[in-house]
Amino acid sequence: GQNIDQPTEMTATEGAIVQINCTYQTSGFNGLFWYQQHAGEAPTFLSYNVLDGLEEKGRFSSFLSRSKGYSYLLLKELQMKDSASYLCAVMDSNYQLIWGAGTKLIIKP
Amino acid sequence: GAVVSQHPSWVICKSGTSVKIECRSLDFQATTMFWYRQFPKQSLMLMATSNEGSKATYEQGVEKDKFLINHASLTLSTLTVTSAHPEDSSFYICSAGDLAGYEQYFGPGTRLTVT
């Protein structure tokens, strides 16, 4: 079967750094996505990785290791507005997105 | 670019009635549109995938006769919840994929409450 695993909840302090991990087992791989979703809102796109390595975009970076079936989202200089759920999703061989359950990130002052 | 709209943003209806939700890609042609449902504190659940001009592909456990999907053009897909019941109350989100491929662009979602 297809499976995406990510922690249910994480807590971090404003101004700090947090890493949210995602491991996956899917039938085929056409890229991995990270989305941010604030409560009551639709997800918004953060990043897309299809090759191994680190992609940096401002305060957010995403890393992928295809051989390990592993990705992480790194958030630096955390702000209160970063409190949200972070969804990891993998596009399988049929170009369908397989979604993780999301990681709720709580930022404390 | 890549804006997807949904209408209505929220709706309250009585049990037994039907509700139609529209999903539009405003500045691109969406070859594929996806309908998701999200219950409180849970992740997105894909309901169905629709390609323009063809029948939608429903995920296991989703009743195709209850959740009618029409994707009549490259910019519009509709989801009709027929004979709605309180357990259908949820946050319904559509997303659209463009011709270039990989990314899905999400609409703002429709919150349905069935009383």
Description:
The complex is a heterodimer of chains A (109) and B (115). Chain A is mostly beta strands and 109 residues long. Helices cover 0% and strands 57% of the residues of chain A. Chain A is built from no helices and eleven strands. In chain A, the strands form two sheets. In chain A, strands 2, 4, 5, 9, 10 and 11 form a six-stranded mixed sheet that branches. Chain A has a five-stranded antiparallel sheet with strand order 1-3-8-7-6, with no helix packed on it. Chain A is globular and about 40 Å long. The termini of chain A are far apart. Chain B contains no helices and eleven strands. By secondary structure, chain B is an all-beta fold. In chain B, the strands form two sheets. In chain B, strands 2, 4, 5, 6, 9, 10 and 11 form a seven-stranded mixed sheet that branches. The mean pLDDT of chain B is 90. The A-B interface holds A 30-31, 33, 35, 40-45, 48, 50, 87, 91, 95-97, 99-102 and B 34, 42-44, 46, 49, 91, 93, 101-109, 111.
Order of helices and strands of chain A: EEEEEEEEEEE
Beta-strand percentage of chain A? Answer: over 45%
Silhouette of chain B: globular
Strand-residue fraction of chain B? over 45%
Integer-rounded radius of gyration of chain A: 13 Å
Mean pLDDT of chain A: 94
Tell me which oligomeric state these chains represent: heterodimer
Please give the largest β-sheet of chain B.
7 strands, mixed
User: How many distinct beta strands of chain B?
Assistant: 11
Most extensive protein-chain contact, per-chain counts: A-B, 21 and 18 residues
Structural class of chain A: mainly beta
Offer a concise description of the structure.
The complex is a heterodimer of chains A (109) and B (115). In chain A, strands 2, 4, 5, 9, 10 and 11 form a six-stranded mixed sheet that branches. Chain A has a five-stranded antiparallel sheet with strand order 1-3-8-7-6, with no helix packed on it. Chain A has strands spanning 3-5, 9-13, 18-25, 32-37, 44-49, 53-57, 60-65, 70-75, 84-91, 97-99, 103-108.
